[in-house]
C-alpha cells in the first residue's frame, strides 16, 4: 500500500513538473521574441541566428504579438485604426514563404532573356544620390530595356533605400505610390533595393509598404526574414561609395611572412542588446586588453593567411568596390537563379576574373574560357584562325592583303583564314584569292562598321584568333613565334605594334602616344593574337554607346579591345619581338595612308581614351616594360642554332 502511494506521489510530481516546463518554456520564448523586436539596432548591425533559430519551425506558428499602441503610421504619429495597424504589422510576413518557384514568373524571361526595366522617374519625386547611382548602373548595363513588354525584372524608380522615418531621405506615401503602378502586379518579378529599414528604438525590418511577391536586395537582413534563393543580401555602402570603378584593395604588396600587429580586426559598434549583439559582444571578449585570446587564429598557417588576404582583395575588386559592381552582381545572381542550366559555379565566382566577366551564355564548359586551363589540367589551343579585316578593293595580285594571307596560311599553327570584307566594292571572284593549304572563308560584313571585326562569328572554329589589318606586313616566322608566346598567356593580348597612354597634367586628361619608348600599355589588334571569347565580351558586355562611337569615327576599336581585356585580366598585354619597320611599312601603304596621315585620326584616339576611361570608371590600362624575344635573338652565334632565324633578317 505504501509503495503504491509513493508511486502515485512520484507520478503526480513528474506531471506537474512537465506542465511547468511546458508553459514556462512557451512564456520564455514569447518574451524573448518580444524583447528581440524591442532591442535597438545600429544601421551597420550584423545579424546572427539566435539559438532557438535552429529548432524546427512549424507552419502554424503564432505570429509575435506587438501591442497596437507601439505601431505608428508610416508618415506621422496620427492615430490609425486598429485594422490599419494590423495591416502594417502583417506586412512583414506577407510573402515570407516566397521562393523563385512560387513568386516569380519565369515565362517573362524565356522569350527575351534577362532584361531589366526601370520605371520612369516621376516629376517632383526626390531620389537620393545613392539610389540614382543604382538606377544609372542598371540603365548603363547590357540588361537594361526601356520596353516593359521585353522585361523579365522590374525595378522601381521610387527611392526605397532609406526607410527610416527619421531620415531626410525617407519617401512618404510610398505604399500608395507603389500600389498605383500599373505594372506592380503585387510585386511579382520586381526587385526592391533597401539599405535601411525601421526606426529607433525598434529598427524593425519593415520597409513601410507591402512588398508582396517582390524580391529584396537588402543590407543587414536578418536570417529570420531572409528568403533563401529569393532575396539577395547586399553590403551596406555609404553615400560616398563610387558609382563606377572604385579603389583597389589595401593590400598593395605581399608581405612574406604575412605578419601584422593585430591578428583580428572588427569594424563596428559593440551592442549589448539588439540584433547582432551576441556576435559583436563575443568579439569584444576575445581580447584581454593586451592580446587576442582564441588559439584558433594563431593556429592558421601563414600560407593560408596570405591566400585568404589575397582572396579578400579579389572579392572586393570584383564585386564590392563600386555601386555598379554591387548592382551588377545582384542582377547576375538573380539571372543564375532563373537560368539554372547555365548558372555559374563557385569556381567562377571565387576565382579571377570573377562572375561579372564570365558570361554563361557563351558556354557552360569552363574549358571554353581562357582563364581555367590550369585548373582543368588542359593545354592551351594548338591552332588559330586568322581574321583579316579588308576595307580596300582588290585591284592587284601584289596587294599587301594577299601577301599577308599567304604568310599566315603557311604557319604550322593556322587552321583557317577568314577575310572580313568591309569594303564598299563587291566581293572579288573566287579565283582572285591565292590557293592555300588551309580553308579561306570570305565573309561580307552586313553593316561594314569597325566593330564588326570583333563579332563572335560562328565560322571561327578555334579558340585562338590572329587579328590582322589588311596592310599588316608579317612573315610566317613572326606569326609562329607570336602564337607560341600566346599559348603561355592565353588570357592576354599578344602581338607586335605597341602603344601607350599617359596622364596629361596640363590638360587634366588621358593622352595617347605612338612614340617608341621603353614601356607600353596597348598592343594594337592590327597584328595580335587573343582568345575568341573577347569577341563575345566585346559584343555583349560593352555598352552600345561605346561601340557606336567606334563605328561613327571608324576608329579606336583596337583601343577599346585593349581596355576591355585589361579590365578583365588586370594585366597588361604582351609585346613580342620589336619590329620598328612596322610603322614605316604601314604608313607607306596606299590603302590606309590617308587614315594614319589624317590629323583628326590622332585627335580622335585621344578623345576615345577619355570616353572609355569614363565609362569604366577608372583607367584599366597597365604599363609594361616586358618584351619577349626568341631564344638567342640577336646573340652572336650561328644563325643555324636559332629556331626563329628569319626574324633577325627582317
From TrEMBL:
Gene3D superfamilies: Spore Coat Polysaccharide Biosynthesis Protein SpsA, Chain A. One of its GO terms (cellular component) is Golgi apparatus. It is a single-pass type II membrane protein. GO terms for molecular function: glucuronosyl-N-acetylglucosaminyl-proteoglycan 4-alpha-N-acetylglucosaminyltransferase activity; metal ion binding; N-acetylglucosaminyl-proteoglycan 4-beta-glucuronosyltransferase activity. It catalyses: 3-O-{alpha-D-GlcNAc-[(1->4)-beta-D-GlcA-(1->4)-alpha-D-GlcNAc](n)-(1->4)-beta-D-GlcA-(1->3)-beta-D-Gal-(1->3)-beta-D-Gal-(1->4)-beta-D-Xyl}-L-seryl-[protein] + UDP-alpha-D-glucuronate = 3-O-{[(1->4)-beta-D-GlcA-(1->4)-alpha-D-GlcNAc](n+1)-(1->4)-beta-D-GlcA-(1->3)-beta-D-Gal-(1->3)-beta-D-Gal-(1->4)-beta-D-Xyl}-L-seryl-[protein] + UDP + H(+). Residues 384-633 form the Glycosyl transferase domain. Its EC number is 2.4.1.225. Signal peptide: none annotated. It comes from the Eukaryota. InterPro entries: Exostosin, Exostosin_GT47, GT64_dom, Nucleotide-diphossugar_trans. GO terms for biological process: heparan sulfate proteoglycan biosynthetic process; ossification. It is an enzyme of class 2 (transferase). Part of the heparan sulfate polymerase, a dimeric complex composed of EXT1 and EXT2. Could also form homooligomeric complexes. Interacts with NDST1. Belongs to the glycosyltransferase 47 family. Glycosyltransferase forming with EXT2 the heterodimeric heparan sulfate polymerase which catalyzes the elongation of the heparan sulfate glycan backbone. Glycan backbone extension consists in the alternating transfer of (1->4)-beta-D-GlcA and (1->4)-alpha-D-GlcNAc residues from their respective UDP-sugar donors. This is Exostosin-1. It comes from Nyctereutes procyonoides (Raccoon dog).
